[in-house]
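During the first year of the project, the team set up a workflow for recording each protein of interest as an amino acid sequence followed immediately by a discrete structure-token representation. This format lets reviewers and collaborators read both layers of information side by side without switching files. As required by the reporting guidelines, we include two representative entries from the current panel. The first entry is reproduced here exactly as it appears in our internal archive.
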Amino acid sequence: MSKHVEIKLDPITDGIIDDMAKENAYCTDRLMRIIATDGSDRITDFIEAEYIMKTLKATKNRHCGAYDSENGSIGGFILQDTSEDKEFVVIFNENKVFDMDGECLFVGSMLVMKIEDDYWIGLTDEEMARVKEMLDGQKCTRINENGPFSALLLS
């Protein structure tokens, strides 16, 4: 049985932990990611991912069956990578969706996770690159009074 010491300044859980070495090794190469429509991205953790999803919850909204809250609403879709037989969940604030020239567009940032065995998990660097590539295929450039911007085409 594998044992290691885990100290997170939590009197309830700190101490010697059994059989966590394999799980910890598996999790270190998978990271939660936030990707923006302008191409920038950053790493986040499950705590922030949970906060984002809880903040964007509540009741039915106007677009695509999303859910309203005071801070926004959950919008999302599944990206399917058929070449690798992988599925990714893309979550965004549905309140940032708008219509322009008859198209349904989104501008902002998105939380991205992988679906594996009915669980949402983080992405490897290779999966992140693939997700960005697939999202790039759904992007378009539009112009407003401030100049050009990248948007994700939803319809």
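The second entry, processed by the same pipeline in the following quarter, appears below.
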Amino acid sequence: MNTQRLAEHDQCLAANTSALHGAIRAIWLELGSSGTISEDTVLSFQRILATMRRQLDRLQREVEATAGSQHEPLCLTPIAHLTPQEKRDVLQALYEHFCEQEDQPARASKNTRGC
């Protein structure tokens, strides 16, 4: 995730936090003056909370997507300590080994057909 996207999320969250503080202050003032909270204040508070939830969910998805793209599959954990070149070499050797194993039954069946 790049720093510009993080700055955008930070700016949105700061604005939402400020709005949330305003809504809480309005609730406090209404409770102090009348002992009740108006429906408009409750709806405003709910909208702010919903907006913050969406923003946090979006941030979480982006962070997870970014983190997921940088992690190797779990099957590669045993070779995680190797350098990228060593990993390529190991994977290439495994690929060649399995290709040879697949070719051996094919060759064996060709040899038995000729008998």
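For the second entry, the following points were noted during internal review. The CA atoms of residues 30 and 76 lie 59 Å apart. The mean pLDDT is 82. Both points are flagged for discussion at the upcoming steering committee meeting.
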